[in-house]
Design brief:
- The complex is a heterodimer.
- By secondary structure, chain A is of the alpha+beta class.
- Chain A is built from four helices and three strands, in the order αβααββα.
- A three-stranded antiparallel sheet of chain A has the order 1-3-2.
- Chain A is globular and about 55 Å long.
- Chain A starts with 10 loop residues before the first helix and ends with a helix.
- By secondary structure, chain B is of the alpha+beta class.
- Chain B is 52% helix and 14% strand.
- Chain B is built from 31 helices and 26 strands.
- In chain B, the strands form three sheets. Chain B has a 15-stranded mixed sheet that branches.
- About 1% of the residues of chain B have low confidence.
- The chains are: A alpha+beta, B alpha+beta.
C-alpha cells in the first residue's frame, strides 16, 4: 500500500466543504468520508481537521449544531451555510482551472 | 448576516470560553471513541486500542490552542491580558503615571479646546439639507464690472476691484433671468443681508441688526422646515402680496419670549406693518456661518421699507443678491456652469448698458455652497489655524516629554524584557505590550484632557461673550465630532510617544541585561554615541519646539501691544458712542438736522459731559467710506481717492483732533451742506426713477443740475495735504467737482478746503491713516459721541431717557465706550495673543520638566560614577558644573535649532503681525534668554542632588 499523500496546501478547506455539501456530518465522519472517497489516498489528520473546522465556522461558511450520532451518542454536526456553498463553488471552479492548467503543462513532453 | 454571525461567534468564544472549551472537549472525545472503536474492530485489545488512539491523536492541549487560534480570539485575549498587565505596571509607579497622564491631558486638552473652536467657526456643515448639491453662484471676469452699485454683506469673500475679480453679488433682474432660463437646477434662490431696521409694535422700539431679504423659494430650496407657523413661500414674494416675515428661532426666544402667540402678530419695521407668519427651525440661524439672522423678509419687502436704494429690484447695474441653486440630480456641475455662464455673458456684455466687454470674458463659477459661503469665518480662519498649529506643536512636545519618561523606564525594565525574550517571547509580542501601555496612558490623558478642554472652552466662550455682542457666531462646545477628534488624537499620540520605548524594547541585549545589577553602573559608552542618544534627542526637540511656540507667541503679543500703543490721533479716554437712525422712522432733512442739534444740546447739558458731537460712523468702529474724486490740474479721466467722514459740529474738539490750519465748521457750513444734499438727493431720485423707465435716456436728462451750487466746505487731514496739496497753501482750494458723464449719473459741485486737522485713525487701528475729507453731516443716520469727565457708561440711563423724551419710537443701539470699541476691534488679536502665550508657557513648563527628568535620570544612573569621582577628589562644584553643563548644552542645541526653524516659519504669520517683523531680533533674543534661564533652573535641582552623593553609599550601592 502506498503511503497516504499529504494534502496539497489549502485544499483541506475545499475537501471539507465538498464533503459537507452532500450532507451534514460530524468530524469523524468527515475524515472517514474523505479517506474512503479518495480510496485511502487522502488521510486527514485530526490535528488539522478540527482547527480547520473551527476556522471555517469562524468564516461562517459552515455552522454547527449538536445532534444524535448513528450509535445514539451526542455529536457535533457541521453543515454548509449559503455563503459556504457559494465559496465552495468558487473554490471548485478555481481548482478545476488550476488542475487543468497543470495537466496541460505536464503533458507537453 | 454573515457579519453578525461572525461577531456573535467571536463574542461567544471570548466571553463563554468555558462553554466553548467544554464543547471542544466533547467533540474531541467523540472522535477519540470512534477511533478506539475502529481499533478494536481491527483486532486490538481495548487497552491497546485506547493507547494507540491517544498516540495518534497527539497533544490535546495543543489542538485546543490551535482551535482557539482559528477562532481568531487569541489576539483579543492577549489584548485583554496586556491591558491587565499594563494597568498593573502603571499602578505600580503612580508618580510616573500621574505625571505622564497629566502632561498628556494638558496637551490633548489644549488640542481639543482649540479644535472645538475651529470646528464651531470653520468646519460646521451648512445647516441645510444635502449641502453638496447646493451651489453658490460666483462671477468672474478679467476686469471689474462698471457698476453703479455693488454690495456685499459679508456672506462670501468678494474680491472686486482687483484684476481678475471674483464676486458673489448679482442684480435682481439677472437672478430672475437665470432662474427662468437655467434648467440644470431644480430650484434657485437669492438672498441678501440689509441695513438694520427699526422694529416697533413689540414693547419698546428696538433695532433689528441682521435682517435678510430672501426670494420666495429660499426656504424650499434649502430644505428648511418651520419650527412654528409657516415659512416664506413664492406667493409672499410679490409686490401685491400682504407683507410677511419669518423670525429666527433665537430672535423669537429672546425678543418674543418664545411665545406661540408671536405667530400671527403684526409688527412695524421702519413704520411699515408686517405679519409674523412663522419661526424657522432652531438649527437654521443663517446660511453663511458667523452672522446669525434675526428675521427674514421677502425680496419684495425691500421697496416697501423705503430704504434709499429703492429701485434695486429693476436695476441691472445694482448688484446686491447672492444666488444659490440646487443642482438637478445627475447634472454635472461643469455642465450647469457653462449653461448659466452663457446667460450671464450675454446679459453683462450685450444689455442696453453693458458693464463688461466681451474681451473681459465674464463667466460664472458654481462653487459648492459650503466652500463659497465663508461668512464671518474668513476673518478668523488664519488666526485659528495658527492656534491649531501652536497646540499641535505643544502636543509634539508632550509626546517627546512622555517618550523621554517612558524611555528611562524602558531602560530600567530591560531585565524584565530580557527575561521575557529568554523565555521565548517574540519581539512583536513585547512591543505590542509596550504599545498597549502607551495607549493606556494616552487614552487616560485624553479622558482627562476632555475635562481640561471643557474648562478651556468655557473660558474662551466667556471671553468671547464679553468681547462680542454677536457671540452666537462663535461658540465652541464639546460634542461628538470633537470627542472623535480627541479619541483620534489620543491614539495617534500614544502611537508616536510609544515608538521610542518600543524600539528600545526590541534592542535588548540579553546577556548583560540579565546579569545582576548591571543597570546601575553605566555601561562605558564612548562619548560620541551618548550625545546622539534617543533621550538627548527628545530633550533637544522639546526645547526647539518650545522656542518656536514662544517666538510665535512673542510676536503675537508684541503685535497686540503695538496695536494698543498706536497713537490714533485722538483722545480715546472717557468717550461714549451710541448710534441712532431716525431716517428709518421717516425723519428727513431739515427736521433731521434740527433733531440732531436739539439732541446734541440736551446731551451736552448732562452733568459730567464735557462735549458732544456726532459723525456718520464712530472712529475705530470698523465702518469706512471711501470716495473717488477729481483733483483739479490732473487729467480728466484720472481720479484720486480719499476716506470721507461726515461729521457734526464740534467734532474735532470732542475727539481732541488738533486743528492745524484754517477754521472749524460753522453753522453756515452745515446749512450749505444741507442745501447741496437736498439738490443731489432729488437728482438721484429722479435718475433712479428714470432708470426704471428708460435707462439709456436717464443720463441725458440731467445735465448740470448741481452745477450752479457753490462747493461744500470741507476739512481735510494732513495726509490729504501731503498727498494732494504738498506745495501750495491748501486753504480755499477746490477739488472733486464733476459734471454728468459715463461714470457719474449726477453731477457734484465738489468741495473747498476750509481747514486742516491732524491725522487720526478712521476705521481700524491696523489701517494707516489715509487722506481723509471731513464734511459737514446732513440728513443721515449718525453715531453720537460724548466726552465725559466721569465714567462714561454711567451716562447711559440719562441718554436713554433724553432720546426717549425726544422720540419714543427711536431705538438707540451699539452703545460703547471707545475703549470697548477698540477691544472689540482687537478681539481676534487679543484672543490669539492670550491663547498663544498660554500655550507658549505650557510648552516652556513641559520642556523644563523634560530637561529636569532627563538630568535626574542621568544623575541617578551615574550615582556610582559620581561617587567614584568624588572619592577621587572631585569637589561638589565640579560635579555641579558637570551636570549643569550637560543640561545647558542640550538646551543650547535645541534653542539654536528652534531659532533656525522659527526664522523659517514665522514669516507665515506676516499678515497677522503689526509693526514687528517676523524675524524680530528682540523677540528672538528675549525668548532665548527666557529659555536659558528656565534651563538653568531645570538643571540646578538634579545637579545639586548630584553634589549630595555620598561616595561611601554610592560605592556600596548594588
Amino acid at each position: 500500500m502506498t503511503k497516504p499523500v499529504d494534502l496539497v496546501q489549502g485544499t483541506l478547506d475545499m475537501l471539507i466543504l465538498k464533503t459537507l455539501a452532500l450532507e451534514p456530518a460530524h468530524g469523524w465522519a468527515i475524515a472517514q468520508r474523505i479517506r474512503q472517497v479518495s480510496k485511502n489516498v487522502l488521510q486527514v489528520n485530526q490535528g488539522a481537521l478540527y482547527p480547520a473546522l473551527h476556522r471555517l465556522e469562524q468564516q461562517a461558511w459552515i455552522k454547527s449544531e449538536w445532534g444524535e450520532s448513528e450509535n445514539n451518542r451526542r455529536a457535533k454536526y457541521y453543515s454548509l451555510t449559503k455563503a459556504g456553498r457559494k465559496y465552495l463553488e468558487e473554490e471548485q471552479a478555481n481548482w478545476e482551472r488550476l488542475s487543468a492548467a497543470i495537466g496541460l503543462v505536464m503533458n507537453i513532453a | 448576516m454573515r457579519l453578525t454571525t461572525k461577531i456573535w461567534l467571536r463574542l461567544r468564544s471570548l466571553f463563554h470560553r468555558d462553554t466553548v472549551d467544554t464543547e471542544l472537549d466533547a467533540e474531541l472525545r467523540f472522535h477519540l471513541e470512534h477511533q478506539i472503536a475502529e481499533n478494536i474492530a481491527a483486532g486490538m485489545s481495548p487497552e491497546q486500542a485506547r493507547t494507540a488512539a491517544i498516540r495518534e491523536f497527539g497533544g490535546v492541549d495543543q489542538l485546543r490552542e490551535e482551535c482557539s487560534d482559528m477562532r481568531n480570539v487569541s489576539w483579543l485575549q492577549d489584548f485583554v491580558q496586556d491591558i491587565h498587565y499594563g494597568l498593573r505596571i502603571l499602578r505600580k509607579s503612580p508618580g510616573f503615571t500621574a505625571i505622564a497622564v497629566l502632561t498628556l491631558a494638558l496637551g490633548i486638552g489644549a488640542n481639543t479646546a482649540i479644535f472645538s473652536l475651529v470646528d464651531s467657526a470653520l468646519l460646521r456643515a451648512l445647516p441645510v439639507s444635502d449641502p453638496q448639491s447646493l451651489m453658490l453662484f460666483q462671477w468672474t471676469a478679467h476686469s471689474s464690472p462698471h457698476h453703479f452699485s455693488y454690495s456685499n454683506y459679508g456672506d462670501c469673500d468678494d474680491r472686486t476691484g482687483e484684476t481678475n475679480p471674483v464676486g458673489c453679488s448679482f442684480s435682481q433682474p439677472m437672478f430672475n433671468d437665470l432662474r427662468a432660463r437655467a434648467d440644470a437646477f431644480s430650484s434657485m434662490a437669492a438672498f441678501a443681508g440689509g441695513e438694520g431696521l427699526d422694529l416697533a409694535g413689540n414693547g419698546a422700539a428696538t433695532r433689528v441688526d441682521s435682517p435678510e431679504y430672501v426670494s420666495g423659494d429660499y426656504f424650499q430650496t434649502l430644505g428648511i422646515r418651520p419650527f412654528a407657523g409657516r415659512l416664506i413661500g413664492s406667493a409672499d414674494d410679490a409686490p401685491t402680496a400682504s407683507p410677511v416675515l419669518v423670525l429666527s428661532y433665537n430672535y423669537w426666544r429672546t425678543n418674543f419670549g418664545g411665545s406661540p402667540s408671536a405667530v400671527g402678530k403684526t409688527i412695524f419695521l421702519n413704520k411699515v406693518p408686517f405679519t409674523i407668519v412663522g419661526v424657522a427651525e432652531p438649527k437654521f440661524d443663517a446660511l453663511s456661518p458667523g452672522n446669525p439672522i434675526d428675521l427674514w423678509l421677502p425680496l419684495s419687502a425691500v421697496s416697501r421699507i423705503e430704504v434709499p436704494w429703492d429701485n434695486r429690484d429693476a436695476d441691472f447695474n445694482d448688484w446686491w443678491l447672492l444666488i444659490v441653486g440646487r443642482l438637478k440630480p445627475g447634472v454635472a456641475r461643469t455642465q450647469a456652469q457653462s449653461a448659466v455662464g452663457t446667460i450671464f455673458f450675454n446679459e453683462v456684455v450685450h444689455s442696453a448698458k453693458p458693464v463688461l466687454k466681451p474681451e473681459d470674458a465674464p463667466s460664472i463659477l458654481l462653487v459648492p455652497s459650503q466652500k463659497g459661503l465663508t461668512g464671518y469665518s474668513t476673518d478668523v480662519s488664519a488666526p485659528l489655524y495658527v492656534l491649531m498649529c501652536a497646540v499641535g506643536v505643544v502636543l509634539l512636545i508632550v509626546c517627546a516629554n512622555v517618550a523621554g519618561l517612558l524611555l528611562s523606564r524602558a531602560t530600567a525594565r530591560q531585565k524584565e524584557f530580557a527575561l521575557r525574550f529568554a523565555l521565548g517571547a517574540r519581539r512583536g509580542r513585547v512591543v505590542r505590550q509596550l504599545f498597549t501601555e502607551s495607549l493606556l496612558l494616552s487614552l487616560a490623558g485624553g479622558a482627562l484632557g476632555i475635562l481640561f478642554a471643557r474648562w478651556a472652552a468655557q473660558g474662551i466662550s466667556a471671553f468671547i461673550d464679553a468681547s462680542l455682542e454677536n457671540s452666537m457666531a462663535f461658540n465652541p462646545h464639546i460634542d461628538g465630532r470633537v470627542l472623535a477628534f480627541t479619541a483620534a488624537v489620543s491614539i495617534l499620540t500614544g502611537m508616536i510617544f510609544g515608538l521610542a520605548p518600543a524600539l528600545r524594547g526590541m534592542r535588548v541585549d540579553l546577556t548583560p541585561a540579565l546579569k545582576e545589577g548591571s543597570g546601575a553602573s553605566a555601561p562605558p559608552v564612548h562619548r560620541g554615541a551618548r550625545w546622539f542618544s534617543a533621550a538627548n534627542t527628545l530633550v533637544v526637540a522639546q526645547v526647539a519646539l518650545t522656542m518656536i511656540v514662544l517666538v510665535a507667541a512673542g510676536l503675537l503679543v508684541r503685535t497686540l501691544a503695538n496695536l494698543k500703543s498706536v497713537d490714533p490721533g485722538f483722545d480715546t479716554r472717557n468717550i461714549l458712542t451710541f448710534r441712532i437712525d431716525p431716517t428709518l422712522i421717516g425723519y428727513k432733512r431739515p427736521e433731521l438736522d434740527t433733531f440732531y442739534a436739539g439732541l446734541q444740546e440736551r446731551l451736552a447739558a448732562i452733568p459730567g459731559v464735557t462735549s458732544v458731537s456726532y459723525s456718520w460712523r464712530p472712529l475705530l468702529g470698523g465702518g469706512l467710506w471711501t470716495t473717488d474724486f477729481h483733483l483739479p490740474g490732473t487729467p480728466k479721466d484720472q481720479s484720486a481717492d480719499a476716506d470721507m467722514l461726515p461729521v457734526g459740529s464740534g467734532f474735532f474738539e470732542t475727539m481732541r483732533i488738533p486743528l492745524r490750519l484754517g477754521r472749524q465748521f460753522t453753522s453756515q457750513d452745515f446749512d450749505q451742506a444741507a442745501r447741496v444734499g437736498e439738490v443731489l438727493d432729488a437728482e438721484q431720485q429722479r435718475v433712479a426713477a428714470a432708470v426704471k423707465t428708460s435707462p439709456a435716456a436717464a443720463a441725458e436728462q440731467n445735465k448740470d443740475a448741481a452745477a450752479d451750487l457753490p462747493p461744500t466746505p470741507a476739512i481735510v487731514n494732513e495726509a490729504f495735504i501731503r498727498k494732494y496739496f504738498p506745495e501750495i497753501n491748501p486753504l480755499g482750494a477746490p477739488f472733486g467737482a464733476h459734471g454728468v458723464d459715463d461714470s457719474n449719473p449726477t453731477s457734484n459741485p465738489g468741495w473747498e478746503i476750509v481747514g486742516v486737522v491732524g491725522d487720526a485713525k478712521y476705521s481700524r487701528l491696523r489701517r494707516d491713516v489715509a487722506p481723509t475729507i471731513y464734511v459737514p453731516s446732513s440728513g443721515r443716520a449718525v453715531c453720537f459721541t460724548l466726552r465725559a469727565g466721569i465714567e462714561p457708561l454711567s451716562l447711559v440711563p440719562q441718554i436713554r431717557s433724553i432720546v426717549g423724551q425726544m422720540d419714543s419710537n427711536l431705538p438707540i443701539f451699539m452703545i460703547r465706550t471707545e475703549t470697548q470699541q477698540i477691544d472689540r476691534q482687537l478681539f481676534v488679536e487679543r484672543l490669539i495673543a492670550r491663547l498663544s502665550s498660554f500655550f507658549g508657557l505650557l510648552a516652556l513648563v513641559l520642556a523644563c520638566i523634560g530637561l529636569y527628568g532627563l538630568l535626574s535620570y542621568e544623575v541617578s544612573r551615574r550615582t556610582r560614577e559620581i561617587g567614584i569621582r568624588m572619592a577621587l577628589g572631585a569637589n561638589p562644584a565640579d560635579v555641579l558644573r558637570m551636570v549643569i553643563r550637560q543640561g545647558i548644552a542640550l538646551a543650547a542645541v535645541g534653542a539654536v535649532i528652534g531659532i533656525v526653524v522659527a526664522l523659517g516659519i514665522t514669516r507665515f504669520l506676516g499678515s497677522m503681525l503689526y509693526n514687528v517683523k517676523a524675524g524680530d531680533p528682540l523677540t528672538f533674543t528675549g525668548v532665548a534668554v527666557l529659555i536659558a534661564a528656565v534651563a538653568v533652573f531645570a538643571c540646578y535641582l538634579p545637579a545639586r542632588r548630584a553634589t549630595r552623593v555620598d561616595p561611601l553609599v554610592a560605592l556600596r550601592y548594588e
